[in-house]
Amino acid sequence: MIYFLVLLSLVFSSILFDFNVSKRQFDKLYWFYLLVFILIAGLRWKVGGDSLSYERSFENEIPNLNEISFEFISTFQWEPLFVLLLSLCKTIVNEFWFFQFVHAVFVNVILFVFIKKYASKKYVALIIYAFFFYFYLDFEILRESIAIMIFVLVYPYFSKKKWLKYYMFVLIAILFHYSALILLLFPLFRNSKINGKGFLILSLIALFLIFLSSIFPIELIMLFLGDFASNKFEAYSGVGVNIVGMIYTFVVFVVFPYCIYMYNKRYQQVSLFDDLIYIYFSLSLVFILIAGLGRFLNYLAPFVIVYAANTFGLMFNNIKNSLKRILHSNENVSSDRIISRVVVLIYVLVCLLFLFVPVYHKVNYYFRSTDNLIKDTHAYNVYYPYYSVFDKEMTIDREGLVDENLREAFNNALNNKK
Q1: What's residue 290's pLDDT?
Q2: Distance CA 341, CA 317 (A)
Q3: Quick one: pLDDT band at residue 326, thresholds 50, 70, 90?
Q4: Which of 267, 344, 278 minimizes the C-alpha distance to 313?
Q5: How far apart are CA 47 and CA 54, in angstroms?
Q6: What is the phi-psi region of residue 44: left when phi exceeds 0, alpha when psi lies from -120 to 50, beta otherwise?
Q7: Distance of CA 192 to CAs 70, 197, 199, 268, Å?
Q8: What is the DSSP string of 306-328?
Q9: Contact 142, 179 (CB under 8 A)
Q10: Where do runs of H (alpha helix) occur along 119-185?
Q11: Can you name the residues that pair with 388 across neighbouring β-strands?
């Protein structure tokens, strides 16, 4: 219920402040939502999938800061700076909710500041964040989300080509999650464009990946990333993907975003995050060909949130302006001119309908049945019902659901390797 109330409140806030029903700009409300997002994520009790695994390790394996050793940090299953952060939080307050709270503050403060700076429709951006990314960034990929927010912090350095500062922070991000190694390659594609030459490069990348994945995928990953990263890759890429799945992924992650990109290119003189567009499509292609590397797209999630929100605002303004021209057209306006305006309006409405593609994709994910793991459960039961540290109730075997899901994924990976 709390998720629904927050989402509904955001919709009303967007109507009032994003689309000029109210001329006032109430910044205090925006920062109030920041507090709400922090409290929901920070004070949750056994809500989320990966969070439960982190909590078990926090309670049973992570030592206090005065007991930790270099050998422990260097040999533990997680990255060094993340282990140190857990140990520091445990030393201050020996309960996992405190780490959750620190994590929620870090992720949400950075993201809210970023959205306020770049989003023209900031409440629309918060709706997108809440519906598509909130659970994932705040309840699941706790290590990686720290690395993602570090990239958000250093994006101005990336954009202005201040490479020394950029790479210094990227090294810090890598020590929170090894997937941040991909950030070392981003500058190589910063100036690439979606044109004939760009598509040629993408095609060559695709052929190269197909060749590698068919000849020696794991050996190559081990050579560059080491045993730990290789094992993670092997587990993620063990998910079998048929041709229908690849087509569906292609539509959701390439065709739909390309339509949105072309729409922005047509109606905006300056495209926001233009230096990341080619990188996005490159990573999407990698995701389609090798599912295990799809998580690299996570580093562009904050930029996708703002880009989508701004596109929605641009579409709304175009619809409003087209309707005004049609309704206020006089007899001196030729029928051809009126028809062209109607065509533009229809075009914008069709593009707007495209926005339901990712919505369908996410709803389908949340409502996916998990009866094969635990009877009468769905994917959303990892997050719903919500429990807080104040009641510490549990009406669903959420830990069992997560453990069974991990066990099934592991078995699938082993079967696909055979």
Answers
A1: 72
A2: 14
A3: low
A4: 267
A5: 12
A6: beta
A7: 42, 9, 10, 19
A8: HHHHHHHHHHHHHHHHHHHHHHT
A9: no
A10: 122-128, 134-135, 142-159, 163-174
A11: 44
Mean pLDDT, the chain, rounded, equals: 79
In a 13 Å sphere around the CA of 2, the CA atoms on its Cβ side amount to 13
What 8-state DSSP symbol labels residue 19?
Answer: S
Q: Does 383 have pLDDT greater than 70? A: yes
Query: For residue 411, what are its two tokens?
Result: 């078995």
Question: What percent of the chain lies above the pLDDT cut of 70?
Answer: 71
CB 351 within 8 A of CB 315: yes
Question: What are 95's two structure tokens?
Answer: 């309960």
In this structure, what token pair is assigned to residue 209? Answer: 């990946």
- 106 pLDDT above the threshold of 90: yes
pTM reported for the whole predicted model: 0.84
Contacting residues for 102 by C-beta, under 8 A, at least 6 apart:
42, 85, 89
99 CB neighbour count, 10 Å cutoff: 24
DSSP secondary structure, 55-104, as one string: HHHHHHTPPPTTT--HHHHHHSSS-HHHHHHHHHHHHH-SSHHHHHHHHH
